[in-house]
Amino acid sequence: MTEAADPAWVLLHGTPLTPGIWDDVATALPGGVRTPDTSVVPEADAVHALAEEVAASLPEAGCHLVGHSFGGQIALEVALSAPERVRSVTILCSRDTPFPAFAPLSDAVRAGRVPDPSASLARWFTAAELTENGAAVRRARAALAAATADPTSWANALAAIATFDRSADVGRLQVPLALHAAGTDGVSTPEAMRALERRVPGAILTVHPGWAHMSPFAEADRLAGLLRRGVQRWRMG
Q: What are the pLDDT digits (tens) for 11-33?
């Protein structure tokens, strides 16, 4: 297929992760796949600045935009600022409202007091996923080690999440929006994502009760299938 007939997928990662978290998902998606690197996070106006970088690189034929966590907020910003380049948006475990509890965590990380990696992994994955120690867990562990050595971008991203608020604007989104919430996520809670669904006409939310925050990546083939079926549903609708 040509890119015009089969738009590229653009997959945006969370923090302090890297594009590598998408590797296994990307191989299971049809057409072209792009995984922009948004791991270097500026201190000021971070979401808007990163969204501008992503929007400038989008194919003219449009794309299916997917964002996880902090990447989901960037995806919302891109869809609002460059709707002509976006065919559909899928948000995984993210929110359009502030999470103020991350402000003191950002300050601690900036000062070098990073969370215990084991505690972060326990929040991100289920106990069974950690025991299996699959590729997603290993990639997340490596990203945490890198962030511990150089925590500035992680601190900047946490500060941005603490204040990000597009709740008054998402209602003007004109592209299909699919939302996937993790049942045990304490940050991008199902309740927060239900509120986002209500604000966007036509948005469709699926809550996955057994998921933790990064469980989607533990079953890459399943995640790719969810993304493919979401686009097919939009085309059929």
A: 999 999 999 999 999 999 988 99
Domain definitions of the chain by residue range? 8-97+165-236
- Residue carrying the six token digits 């969810």: 226
Tell me how far CA of residue 28 lies from CA of 9, 32, 81, 197, 233, in angstroms: 11, 11, 29, 27, 18
Helix %, strand %, coil % for the chain, to 5? 50, 15, 35
Which phi and psi angles does 31 have, rounded to 5°? 75, -170
Radius of gyration of the chain (CA): 16
pTM for the full predicted model: 0.95
Q: Are the C-beta atoms of 46 and 157 separated by less than 8 Å? A: yes
The residue type of 141 is R
Backbone angles phi, psi at 191, to 5 degrees: -65, -40
Rounded CA separation 95/69 (Å): 8
Q: Is 191 helix (H, G, I), strand (E, B) or coil?
A: helix
Whether residue 51 contacts residue 160, with contact meaning beta carbons closer than 8 Å, is answered with no
C-alpha to C-alpha distance for 224 and 92, rounded to whole angstroms: 12
Return the CATH number of the domain spanning residue range 8-97+165-236: 3.40.50.1820
Give alpha helix (H) positions in 58-206.
Answer: 70-81, 102-110, 117-124, 127-132, 135-149, 152-163, 190-199
Residue found under tokens 């994955």: 125
pLDDT per residue as tens digits for the range 65-114:
999 999 999 999 999 999 999 999 999 999 999 999 999 999 999 999 99
Strands 204-208 and 177-182 come out as parallel
